[in-house]
Amino acid sequence: MTIRVLLADDQALLRATFRMLIEATPEMEVVGEAADGEEAVALTRAHQPDVVLMDIRMPGTNGLAATAAICADPELAATRVLILTTFETDEYVAEALRAGASGFLGKDVSADGLLDGIRTVAAGEALLSPTATRALIARFLTTDEPKAGTAGLDVLSALTAREREVMALAAEGKSNSEIADQLVVSVFTVRTHIQRALTKLHARDRAQLVVIAYQTGLVRPPPREVTEPG
Fold this sequence. Notes:
By secondary structure, the protein is an alpha/beta fold. It is built from 11 helices and 5 strands.
């Protein structure tokens, strides 16, 4: 099956580089290029790609607004947005994840890293490193108080205890293999629990499970270190 990719970046040279790399890969093809967010949304609706490789900082409608528009459109439910950012803790990345993005890549990513990232999100997985997960979720909590207590429990009430446990470990940035080792179960079992949680919580993908885990208070970031004066 061919993975259909849309490129959204205001730098023509970077788009050309990505196009050459992607189209040299047998199972991938580029279906369109956008120079700003408005064009990215329009082309996504026209071509319905599997993955949109989205730059955050573009003139006019930026990648954040474009991501929100794409992920809110029910007709584009099968499209995944992969964010391109200069820094792993770009202040806009957390907002993009909240809007529905499936993960992110640094613009200094290697060729293999880019292709693997596209494959990962096309398969419905999240592309979030543990370090970035902690940093990004900390930003969520600076703007949104977690729905702790009764509200948080109501959101998670459909999950079994094991599904909550797996979801919490995923939210801490652990991979399926790491979760399987910790719980002494198979990777297949972990994937099954993740998939059931996705279905029950009506989440687009694993990245959204991470968001829900922190917003409901299922998982909380470690306390910030306090530096002693002088």
